[in-house]
Amino acid sequence: MPSRKRRSPSRPRPRGLAPDPRNIILAGFMGSGKSTVGRTLARSLGWGFVDTDQLIEAEAACPVAEIFEKKGEAAFRDLETRIAGRIGAMRHCVIATGGGFMIREENRKAAFDAGRVIFLMASPQQIWHRIKHSSRRPLLQSEDPIARIRELLSEREEAYNAIPDRVSTDRRTPYSIADEILRKLSG
């Protein structure tokens, strides 16, 4: 269930949020800032925040890395698609998707049907800088993680290019990224 938080009095909801989307869905590669920016954005709007990886972990009763290890990536992607089918019922949530969520066309369709999708972009170097100390990234267990990041970005390029609204997150604070997203939504 998404968390609901009151809007911070210091960061009021912007006037003219148009069109008023049912949800804001953040897509992008791992380490692009989806969860961090999503929480900041949700607080600014007074909306709930949902992380699809956390929903998957709750449904599977185990961490994402364990799902990959014991059942494989295909089983994880199937769980992801099941969760994608549920996001359309949510209202006024900022939803952070997993890095590979948009790979499957049915997930992209579910996301676009559920609200406004924003793609958060980051360079391979910035991504590695953000996640290099995380042990929860099963797809990056590699001798050369930056090369692996580039490879995965290339494989996902078509899926990511299907998202027209884009925001760069390199060397920016979550607040400045959230503000840019709010400006996009207001315009």
Strand content: 5-15%
CATH homologous superfamily heading: P-loop containing nucleotide triphosphate hydrolases
Shape call: globular
| Head-to-tail CA distance between termini | 30 Å
Q: Return the average pLDDT rounded to an integer.
A: 88
SSE ordering: EHEHHHEHEHHEH
What integer value in Å does the Rg equal? 16 Å
CATH fold-type name: Rossmann fold
Number of strands: 5
Based on the structure given, which CATH architecture is correct?
A: 3-Layer(aba) Sandwich
Query: If strands are numbered along the chain, what order do they take across the biggest sheet?
Result: 2-3-1-4-5
CATH class: Alpha Beta
For the report, how would you describe the main beta sheet?
A: 5 strands, parallel
Describe the model.
The structure is a single chain. This protein has about 190 residues and is of the alpha/beta class. The protein has one domain: Rossmann fold (3-Layer(aba) Sandwich), CATH 3.40.50.300. About 50% of the residues lie in helices and about 10% in strands. It is built from eight helices and five strands; from the N terminus they run βαβαααβαβααβα. A five-stranded parallel sheet has the order 2-3-1-4-5. The protein starts with about 20 loop residues before the first strand and ends with a helix. The N terminus is likely disordered.
